[in-house]
Each structure stands twice: as structure tokens, then as C-alpha cells.
Prior knowledge:
There is one protein chain. The protein is mainly beta. Helices cover 15% and strands 39% of the residues. The protein has a seven-stranded antiparallel beta sheet. The longest helix has 8 residues, at 21-28. It is globular.
Amino acid sequence: MLQNTLTPHDLAIPHAEGVSNDEFKAAMSRLAAGVVLVTAHDPDDGPRGEDVGMTATAFLSVSLEPPLVLVSLRNDSRMDDLLADVPVWAVSLLSENQRQIAGRFAMKGRVSDRLLFADVPYTRGPHSNAPLMEGALATLECRTENRVVAGDHTLVIGRVLATTLSPSAAGPLTYFRGHYRTLS
């Protein structure tokens, strides 16, 4: 019996004529976005598991009733693979003082996240067991409700299980035209 082995890449729709990847990226770089750190705990990686983190700018609120958020993950990335198996995860909305954390977790081709978390202050979420960054403007713990393949990314919709707000007066970290920015 022949099984269907199509991957999301096989289903990709090419760009419309006249729109190159570079042109699309240049246009979208003009959209300012908030910067978040998505984290999860992989209980199956090593004797105590391993924490995994990734910087994201494609994060948004979806619904108030119920409280839902959405994050876009590159297909076949470590976070995409992990969240396909682990139903709970967290998001830290980074402050303008956390540019180094954003850059650290945006690195491509890293072997392990253990060293990335080594000197970053965080607490562990009671619902997700995922790292919640200290100094973040807010944190959310989420449970995956739905996953939708969209081109070369997967949109993960999560139900918010808990939030914390920081008393910090710091502004948000944003991303605009390929660089981290602040509002001031």
C-alpha cells in the first residue's frame, strides 16, 4: 500500500509573478513587530530534560473568549518539532532591556539551548514547566489548541492558561527593518 508522504514543502505555492523572496522580505521589514521569546521544556531530552527557546516576531492575540494567541514557527525547526509533541509552552514579551536575550535565541545552527539559558534569569512556569524570562513585560503560559501549516511555517494557536505582568516601566523591544529597536 502506497502512503501519502507529502510534506508542507511539497504543498508550497510559488510567489506570484513579479514578487521575489527579497522583495517580499523588504516589504515586510517595514512592519514593526514586538519581540517575544517562545520557550518549552523537552522532558525527553536527557535525564532532566532540556529547555528550548526561540525568538519570534510573528506573535499575536487571536481571541479574548477564549484567550488565544498565535505564534508562527518555521516548519521542521526544533521548536516546531517540539511543540508538535509537547502541548504546553510559554511566551515572554521582551522589554527594551532584553535585546541580548533576543539576539542569543535568534541564532541559527546552534547545537544546544542549554548554554543559552545558563546565565539568563528565569523562573519556571507552573503550568508549562517552561522558562519565563525575568524582566519580561509579561509572560503567558499556553496549551496548543491548533496547528495550521501555512507555506514554510506552522501557525500554532495556543490557549492562554496563565499570565504574569511585570511592574517594570521599561518599553517593549521591537523589530523594524532588520534591527531590534526601542520606542524611545
